[in-house]
Specification:
The structure is a homodimer of 405-residue chains.
Chain A lengths: L3 E7 L7 H12 L5 E7 L2 H6 L3 E3 L5 H8 L15 H13 L2 E8 L1 H16 L5 E6 L15 H21 L3 E6 L6 H4 L14 E3 L7 H15 L2 E6 L33 H13 L5 E5 L3 H4 L6 H21 L3 E9 L2 E7 L1 H4 L20 H7 L26
Parallel strand pairs in A: 1-2, 1-4, 4-5, 5-10, 6-8, 6-9, 7-8
Antiparallel strand pairs in A: 2-3, 10-11
Helix pairs in contact in A: 1-3, 1-11, 4-5
């Protein structure tokens, strides 16, 4: 049973709904009489070692609800991955503040941090209960049907591609949009959700689940452009050659890596520029443009799925309930049990921690450059009810009267 | 008085509301009994010379209203700038189809095309009435208080910066966002609209109205980062040195130019990458990220100002009314007559054609890297009523208990 002080923190890249999960934890925890305090650590685990705690018991419900609707980690985040010495510092701070339950909202790196923490806690015999609340725009957590944060980012990507498809139809040429997702193509695949007419883009989709070849890319684009006079392309930042070499890293003079050893893929337009340069040099197509969607995908104000908001809130609420009722560590996981309903469970941390889920083959078309209708059926219920639909003029053409011959 | 056949076309870069103006022209024109046909030219003036006309009289009002709500030129667009021979072809097609009134929805390049057309028409004694309907996300048309298309693009930029400011606060570092706008900084300046708290970004704004110096840029960023531990920067793609050299063009091996002689600035991430590389090399700041907002600014589905939609529609409607009542060529212009009300007038084409309006000094702070409250007052009524507002946690900090010394 939950009692004493509980702590909540947010780790990894922010999402549009990560504050919903935080509000879910705080508001649910405050219902339990045995819980004396609800603390929030600033900037994830780094806030714990530095004792940067907020007393969230003193936050008004009204303000918490407003923060819940605001994108990006309100408590701040971190990319720190604790080693043994770091963990010792964490326990020192937790013990000093008498904290026994820690809710960490994050992705697979954050859940792995939690797994390490529980091992270290057992080793030093500190009674720490750790609950992982899932979030990631990459949708790459195992066990889960999908993860909070993904639906809103997918909605952004779908709306972006619905728009650039119209733009590309108005001023014809080739358009390349580069989308976040290091290992999993779920977010890139969402580019297809805005399609309405048979010749709508994206006409080509390059996922990290398939090997990328520059020659194949050039041939694909030429084929589509020859057919339609235009071509819209969705590319994952994580595309790589058959030997695993990331296309993005082929460019960088020196690679920037974070504490998890991840190479920087976002925050640079290099991949889009490489791909557009490749097309300019190897085709006769005059107008070739590229955009890297970057941080807007996870932070843009006002582009949020109501389904995602609700589920992110519930993930936080269920985390507290599971901690109270089940008396074990774990990761809150989302399971689709009907079309469309989500059930929450508490899975072992080890099942989720540090693991990466990629797109199933049934979601990827045989061509390797498109998704299947099954993927659309999977994604559609997640993005909410207010997706805009594009329309075209239907008026008939006027008969030509001039003889140009 | 309007009679016979009228033609509508769309030129230049698409916007979120350019179809509202097209629908305004078509629906208003269809009210006049003396008007026999309403044609739409596909891909602007190039559609005229190729006789690619749609009979918009046969479009249902229901579908027209749906298209009006869809971003990006439904008739297609063009970057063509007609020369004498091109104009001869245009007249040939117009005469063959007995078209006497031409409504061209576009920016300063399109209005200049119209000005040339009217001169050529007079020279060959062809009775052509030309009405320019304003649109541009750059907001750089003279005479106008602002132009349809700008408010929705400004709303996108404001929402994007409100979001990345939160993201940058959660995972601290430096963030550079590059925004469209070759000569005028209006769209870049809109990045400031999402500020709520005194330390919200963008903390630095670089406009084409002021000279850019790399040394000054590095010093500015160091100062802000030293003070806040983070820095969000809005940069216009049109920034240039004191001698007029575009920062973006300093990079390109060879410049790509369009028919108007404009160098390609959008559709590449080179400028953001140059600026982030400059900061990485010249400061100790570890996390430096850059995004180029690109085509999403003018095409993103669902990010549209209701004020912009209404005014774009009215601009089209008034264009038809002016053509009928005033019997002269001209450009429909928007004038602010109250706080907030817009009056439409028909100004001489020569007052708008080919001219560029930049931001007034009263809109730019003395520092040269910020905007004034007067600019916010100018912009606020344009973006509509549904701007999201960010909220922060207000809970007090917990007293530290560990002695770290």
């Amino acid at each position: 049973m939950l009692k004493g002080k509980v702590l909540v923190a947010q780790g990894g890249g922010p999402t549009a709904v990560i504050n919903q999960s935080m509000a879910g934890v705080v508001l649910e925890a405050r219902k339990y009489e045995a819980i004396s305090h609800v603390y929030g650590a600033l900037n994830g685990v780094s806030g714990i070692v530095n004792e940067n705690f907020l007393d969230l018991g003193q936050e008004t419900q009204e303000n918490l609800e407003r923060v819940a609707e605001t994108p990006c980690s309100a408590l701040g985040s971190t990319r720190d991955k604790p080693d043994a010495a770091y963990c010792t510092e964490i326990f020192k701070a937790l013990r000093a503040h008498d904290i026994q339950t820690f809710f960490y909202i994050g992705g697979n790196d954050s859940s792995d941090t939690l797994r390490i923490l529980t091992e270290k806690a057992r080793a030093v015999d500190y009674p720490l209960r750790c609950i992982h609340i899932p979030k990631t725009i990459d949708n790459d957590l195992t066990v889960n049907d999908h993860t909070p944060g993904y639906p809103s980012a997918a909605k952004f990507v779908a709306n972006a591609f619905a728009g650039v498809t119209l733009d590309n139809r108005a001023l014809q040429g080739v358009y390349v949009g580069v989308i976040m997702g290091r290992h999993a193509g779920f977010l890139t695949a969402a580019a297809a959700l805005g399609r309405k007419y048979p010749d709508d883009g994206p006409h080509l989709i390059y996922l990290p689940e398939r090997n990328f070849s520059t020659d194949g890319f050039i041939a694909d684009v030429k084929r589509v452009f020859h057919q339609l006079g235009r071509c819209v392309i969705a590319v994952s930042e994580g595309i790589h050659e058959a030997d695993g070499t990331h296309i993005a890293t082929k460019l960088a003079e020196k690679h920037e890596t974070d504490a998890h050893g991840n190479v920087q893929l976002s925050g640079t337009g290099a991949l889009a520029d490489l791909l557009t340069d490749t097309l300019k040099k190897n085709t006769e197509i005059k107008r070739v443009r590229g955009d890297t969607f970057g941080y807007l995908q996870r932070s843009f104000m006002g582009c949020v799925s109501d389904v995602d908001q609700r589920e992110a809130r519930q993930a936080g609420t269920h985390g507290v309930r599971f901690a109270n009722e089940l008396g074990r560590d774990g990761s809150v996981t989302l399971h689709r049990v009907a079309d469309y309903e989500i059930q929450f469970r508490l899975s072992p941390l080890a099942d989720v921690a540090g693991k990466t889920q990629v797109m199933d083959d049934r979601f990827i078309a045989d061509s390797g450059t498109d998704i299947t209708p099954e993927f659309i059926n999977y994604l559609k219920p997640l993005v909410g009810s207010d997706m805009r639909v594009p329309y075209r003029l239907q008026a008939p053409a006027v008969t030509k009267v001039l003889d140009k011959g």
